[in-house]
Amino acid sequence: MGGTVVLEEKWPVLVRHERAAEWLRVWTDLGRAPRTIDAYARGLAEYLAMCDREGVDPLAANRAHVAAYVRELTERPSHKGANVMSIDSGSGLANATIQQRLVPVRLFYDYLMEEGLREFNPVGRGRYTPGRRHGGHRRGLVPRLTKLPWIPTEQQWTDILAVAADEPVRNRVMLALAYDAALRREELCSLRTDDLDPAHRTLRVRAETTKNRRERVVPYSAPTGVLLSGYLTHRATISRARGPLFLSESRRNHAQPLSLWTWSKVVRRIALAAGLPRFSTHTTRHLCLTDLARMGWELHAIATFAGHRSTDSTLTYIHLSGRDLADKLTKGMNQIHAWRVEMLARLGEQGLGAVRR
Predict the structure, then answer these.
(1) pLDDT confidence band for 183 (50 / 70 / 90)
(2) Which residues lie in coiled coils (predicted)?
(3) Which residues of 99-127 are buried (b: 16+ CB within 10 A; e: fewer)?
(4) Digit-coded pLDDT (tens) for 164-182
């Protein structure tokens, strides 16, 4: 309840709409992560604010009102450039951001339907319905655009590591683990000392820290193990207590668990120093999974390593470059060519045998 009060203070429009505040409390009571609740509150608050400005009762809003909200999102000023004039034009809110803003609005109307306050949800939900006429495909309100993730080249990765070499041991081991185990930012920062198994060089990613609430055990490399051993020795000079693995060393938060935002700032600093502003806390995860694909790992094995429920999710993380695909094609064609030549050679031998007979 306390968390909900803070959010309602942050987004006062939620207080003015009783059903919205009620819906948010339900999700809070169900134990959704604080970051998820904050994202839901922000998205719904922005929609309700638009309804207030337009004099629309959100409980009676229709698809046209939701479409007006989408248009407002696409025309919103952005610090990256001029106002966006079309969805995902590159100068305003990204397509993924617009999708995120619509999720809480759609869930809110789902809730109103469950409570018997509405008969339909004005926010479209893209899905496939077997047996439905005209192909069974139903488009969402906003087309979902899927872009390839950015991953660094070998030289760019070398540049990142060159900058990271001057970082404190904590930051170096965090970067190494983020790549080795393909960890999400929250999974990395939430690691505890008892999640480590140095004898087998594995770490446990607890269910409560993962995106899909599925626990997994993943390995890390020998070089990372050496870095980790050095960090554990250093950590003992900060705190000998068991608990969060990565601790803050600042005067204000000395020996406190390292926050997500602090780690983001560290990675951002490294990225800018290396001249690679697109490098982020998630890049190491993309890079690791792509490297596993390059090494010939099967898709389901990569999905298990990443902690994905579906291999469809894994596919969006794997980014094989045109050069990678060209190499695969060349190797495949060479094998096919060799097979055909061998068959022709056998055919020639058979022909020669027939002539001799």
Answers:
(1) very high
(2) none
(3) eebbebbbbbbebbeeeeebeebbbbeee
(4) 999 999 999 999 999 999 9
The boundaries of the domain holding residue 354 are 321-357
Tell me the whole-structure pTM to 2 decimals.
0.66
Q: Average pLDDT, stretch 321-340?
A: 61
On whether the CB atoms of residues 234 and 170 are closer than 8 A, the answer is yes
Question: Same domain, yes or no, for 126 and 264?
Answer: no
- DSSP character string of 119-138: SS-SS---EE-TT-STTSEE
Terminal-to-terminal C-alpha distance of the chain: 94
Establish if 149 belongs to a structural domain.
Answer: no
**206-244 tens-digit pLDDT:** 998 888 788 999 999 999 999 999 999 999 999 999 999
Residue 343: strand, helix, or coil: helix
* 3-state SS, residue 275: coil
Alpha-carbon distance of 192 to 211, in angstroms, equals 17
| C-alpha 246 chain-centroid distance | 22
* Cβ atoms 247, 240 nearer than 8 A: no
Q: Phi and psi for 244 in degrees, rounded to 5?
A: -50, 135
CA separation for the pair 99, 258 (Å, rounded): 30
Q: Do residues 48 and 18 touch, judged by C-beta distance below 8 A?
A: no
